[in-house]
């Protein structure tokens, strides 16, 4: 398209052709993703995959802004959604609005994402009513890893399924334009997708969702260990290693730089 996709464009895709999305964090990789997907998430997973943190809990608003800017600047077509980091939105809806407004103003992104269902519904309504499109995130919510007892799939008993369904319905009714459903059993993903008026974006949530997302570094083969729900579509880590090995060998044997890479005096 000649203009960037918007949150309403994504909302309008409910029940239609699957929505394609990936994360991206840098100006190096985002331009390759941009023409091929519907939206790009600058996820707080960047703390783990780009900054070697143990969880996403240490990611700051400033770090999200730095990466969000880089991705907005280096793309032209996709809607850019930026994650609200842990601690920037939970205490009050006013805090949440101020943090979301900084993300929007300082990155130029088109929407923000936050984790949580029923307890975040009021916050989502408050932010959305003030002009900021909000994507929600339910099921396995990584910012709650300590409360969940680890990165584990969710919805294995009826009570858990009931609770996650209520979370999804609450964020939809609150005015979120889409909801990420992460790490849940397939029947629950299906039930949520039927129950809510907004697109469900699945990650480890079966093919029943209205769209899919993966962490770019995981699907490209840039991360050493990946969860069950990841499929590797590339072996970029191996490609990097073989390029670096070839360079190292040529430097050591003085065959790089060669004639073609060497300046000669003009006179
Ligand atoms: O931070 C992230 O990458 C995410 C997606 C996995 C949905 O929240
Ligand atoms: Na995230």
Automatic annotation (TrEMBL):
Entries under Gene3D superfamilies matching the protein: Phosphoenolpyruvate-binding domains
Keywords carried by this UniProt record: Cytoplasm, Magnesium, Metal-binding, Pantothenate biosynthesis, Transferase
Residues the entry annotates as binding 3-methyl-2-oxobutanoate: 44-45, 83, 113
Endoplasmic reticulum is among the record's keywords: no
Enzyme nomenclature, EC number: 2.1.2.11
Necessary cofactors: Mg(2+)
Annotated pathway: Cofactor biosynthesis; (R)-pantothenate biosynthesis; (R)-pantoate from 3-methyl-2-oxobutanoate: step 1/2
SUPFAM superfamilies registered for this protein in UniProt: Phosphoenolpyruvate/pyruvate domain
Subunit annotation: Homodecamer; pentamer of dimers.
Protein name per its UniProtKB record: 3-methyl-2-oxobutanoate hydroxymethyltransferase
Native source species: Jiella mangrovi
